[in-house]
Records
---
Amino acid sequence: MFERFFPDRYVASTYVIDFEKLYADGVRGLIFDIDNTLVPHGAPADARAVKLFERLRAIGFRCCLISNNQEKRVKMFNEPIQVDYVYNAHKPSTRNYIRAMEIMGTDRESTVFIGDQLFTDVWGAKRAGIPNILVKPIHPKEEIQIVLKRYLERLVLHFYRKSLRDGKKG
């Protein structure tokens, strides 16, 4: 029942992902959510985010941000990062996941999506056929509609962890 929402991987933070291993495994494009994936909700890119994208470029990745936010927010975050982006993405709609791959020149086998929400980020990536990594939210302060979804996410993640303990893949 909940399996359709299970992430391919679940890690503590974007900043602990072994990007060198992903590249060695053939991944060439990374699609990122912004809020609570890279920085707290509404925050500008911080030094840690800037350093991450410099590292990703040095490894050889193409990167694209996709956000349900309006362009003003995404553009503000992206100013010091300088990667491609899609705003007002309507996640979990698959259209802009596919658009991000087209922009980067990648496909489903060479792309990974990274985000903090199951019902928008992960569900959209899964529907688009893109491997995904769920990260724990950076900061507890969120918009009310996200707070409500977090209660449902906890339920899904309970069954996700149980499936891992039982030896089933998500």
---
Amino acid sequence: MECVFCQNSVVLGRIISPYGVRGWVKIKSYTEEIEGLMSYQPLWVDKGGLKPLIINHWQVHGGGLIAHIEGVNNRDKASFWCKRDILIGKNALPMTPADEYYWHELIGLRIKSFYAGRDEDLGVVMSVLPTGSNDVLLVSGDQASLDSRERLIPFIKEYVSSVNQTHGYIQVNWDPAF
């Protein structure tokens, strides 16, 4: 049976490992600000089926987060929660301004390049990479695209003309030879 919530959720972090002996865990946050993960509610974990993740204490520690899960009071119980993604419902995310997108909204979109009068399909966005100055789309060619190459396309107005989520593509001005 397919998980309907999973299709309408986004991964915001991952429980990595136990921290100490009193039921704390290390968490890798995928939010822009590390502690941003803790501002979302409710949090969920797939633990033999989706279960609410109730964190009653947390703090930034060593470039990541450590947290205490309610009712977990020793290292063995904390271990049971580890190596699991932390999810929220997509509807819990704040609305983005026009022309701004969450990465999960871009992944899976096709890239259509209109360059030098030619309309070419370059493939599918597989991931988005942060570079500090701007994000970069990792595009992989497939059977429906011009070729099977991987391309890195900066997600900036100079190259990205439009994003059409409804029809599933991003229009770019990108030389297919790159």
---
Amino acid sequence: MTTDLLETHPKQAIHDQLESESAIMLEIEGVTDFMIPMAAKPDQETNTVWFFADRSSEIFSKFTSPSKARIIISSNKDKFWADIQGEIKESTNEEVIANKWSADVEAWYDKGKDDENLMLLAFVPKTAHASSSTTNPIKFSWQTAKAILNKQETPSISIQKSIDYA
């Protein structure tokens, strides 16, 4: 259960959610005017979230390395939300390109891994705030009923955690 994992191992909960999402939202200070959907390629061992980007695009042609950035995970299905702030920079790590490359990524680049517009971006989290709510409808209803009947002030159906990656 996501709430239990967030309570006991918050970094693992965030990593697992990044692994399960097909897209998250990315904002880069001075580059994006709005958050944009991107496919995250997390690496728990190096505490890095990798992104493939197109250097010739309107957005990434303005990118300067390093930059402050943030990513948002929003999963209504799993009842999990996180706002993660950190730094993003361009990387030339060929091992990561080889290990994170997939048919989904290749579809965006005419010349595959050798495409001159291929950018590999490394996002390193610094801080995060995550929230998770129970997905159990019986627990949700019971906690709501207790709050309505004044047995407790508010329903106890979620947890929030602040995480420092430093």
---
Amino acid sequence: MRMTTLCYIERDNKYLMLHRVKKENDINKEKWIGVGGHFEEEESPEECLLREVREECGLTLTGYKFRGIVTFIADNYETEYMCLYTADKYTGSITECDEGILEWVDKDKLETLELWEGDKIFLRLIAKDVPFFSLKLRYEGDALKEAVLNGEPV
């Protein structure tokens, strides 16, 4: 089991997106995702979020919101529990990321990117300002086979 954070940082109706093109053997290879990563020993979700955002893009978050928890189940990958955040306040300047290319993308253009199908579901929930949610996503390879929102099939 793995624990991770993922954050969509907002500015001018855009999200800071990471195009994962730099790492070999990356489950997210060629996909566009927010910024975040794996928990370190004894970290809280907020500590992981702040550290990972700082490491991946150089920004220090000063205003963020915990939006939900996403459970990823895959036939070829261990189960992952992801704490999902959005942020709209930060300090610092964007730095180069060793995992991919960072780019501000208009929110209304997100679905034109190469996204995981499950990411489209939680990005729509965020766009609708749905209160804190639990989303379970089951994949076979790259194909989304099941999505369950707050215990109900989607």
